[in-house]
Amino acid sequence: MSHDALRVALALTVATAAGDAHAFQHIVKPGETLAQVAERVYGDARLETVLVGANALDVQGGTVIAAGMRLEVPAPGHHTVMQGESWADLALSWLGTNDMARTELLAHANKGVPWVPPVEGQEIEIPAVVTYLAGEGETVNSIAARFWGDPNRGWELNSYNRRGGVLVRHGEVMLVAMPGLRLTEAGRAEARAAAERDGASGGMALEQQRRPLHRRTGLRSAVSRPIPRRRSPMFGLDARRTGRRDLARSRTLRRSARGRANVAPA
Length: 266
Prior knowledge:
Layout (H helix, E strand, L loop, with lengths): L2 H9 L11 E5 L6 H9 L5 H7 L15 E5 L2 E4 L6 H9 L4 H10 L13 E4 L1 E6 L6 H9 L5 H8 L11 E6 L6 H14 L4 H8 L28 H24 L4
Antiparallel strand pairs: 1-2, 3-4, 5-6
């Protein structure tokens, strides 16, 4: 698959979502580099790795950008806690599930613990999440080293993505949470301008997490794997169709048996 086709496939996962934006679109200016974009929006040129990963720029071995290209810029979101909301409720709303991995991440990112609910009116930060398209020969440990600087945290990626194993399939989508990633004032201003220009967008990662498993489409991933349909071992027929056929046959046989039983012997 070409690099452009991969970018299109990733873009298909972007949809409008309620709430504060988790990502915004940056339109590359003439002569601009990824390091310059990262310096402007994050205050650290080294965070160009976040932009490379979020936009699948290195899938085909290159990270060149061109004027007019739209880059997804992962960014944190914010939410004011309402009465009765727990960390699990908020993880379900903003991170897609209320399992322990995402609940803990959200609580710890806001200096809390999962078993003590946030206070009503508290302003919490929703960590930025990078939607990363795995390359050839990658592992959860290499991805953890790339984004977090620690290969020993690969198990955290597995927990967050509800998957197992060290190896990552080529083309598999991995969600990488980035607590602590924040925008500069210039970055926040650009995010506001982008929201007015493009409309509020939750970004690829937010949509990838929030869509129910059975409704997710596009690239296969640990969180968007289509639910397989059961198949009959005979003739490859759909199991439900086979079941209905067997049920009808069984009813016919039972009616025939009852008919024979009701016939008086000669």
